[in-house]
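Why do we care about 3D structure at all? Because function follows from shape, and shape follows, mostly, from sequence. That is the central idea of this module. The next example makes it concrete: a single protein chain, its amino acid sequence, and then its structure expressed as tokens.
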Amino acid sequence: MKQGLMKRQRFWPLMCSALLSASLTVGVATVAQAQSANSAPGELTSWLESLETAANQQDLERVENFYSADFATSDNVGREAFFQGLNHLWERFAQVNYTTRLESWRQEGDLWVVETVTEITGTQPLASRSVKMASTVRSLQYVRNQQIVRQDILSERTEMLVGDNPPQVDVRLPERVKPGERFNFDVIVQEPLGGELLLGGAMNEKVMGDRYLNPGDFDLELLQAGGLFKVGRAPQQTEPHWLSAILIRNDGMTIITQRLRVEN
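And the structure:
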């Protein structure tokens, strides 16, 4: 296997979710104040539709207009790095499609606080293999004067499928754990392997802004069972982590990344 195939493009989950998606962990009292999508004002729904259209057209200049000059994320990614990664994503994937569903909204002074679920798909045709990407992100965004000023991802899952027959997998990972709590990270191949060899590896990384553009590498091992079965322990700090897995066989490769929240 070439080492280049082992390296994740770590900014994909963020830059996919960056358009129309982000989340913030909020208390019960705050959630109770949220209003349903059906009650959203026309100005808000039109704004969301315009942003989605600009993203689907890969119009970077128009998309930038939807983000304030002091735009910030909870992952310490600045505006410049944010759009650098987004532009790189669009260069790699000729076809990227965004579909956004408004979940709820509320007004906080001069802010709209908008919760959405965004589905992102993309394809990258290559001479030797095809690459398909799919990401689902649940998010909350803070919008002032029709510009996003803050963005925090609550949940995300990104899957990349490479080759003609990538392994179909079932991922078992909790969405959140408490500091110091043990958890299981299982990535199970759905179809029988027969006599095929299966390589795999897993990685646990703290969510940090610099890791979006400088991802780590997987350490691969020959798997004796039909998947990866790992036991982890959450750190004592309340901070999000990425849990990633890669599964490789002779005619395909699957890479999965999910966010794990560590909270009291």
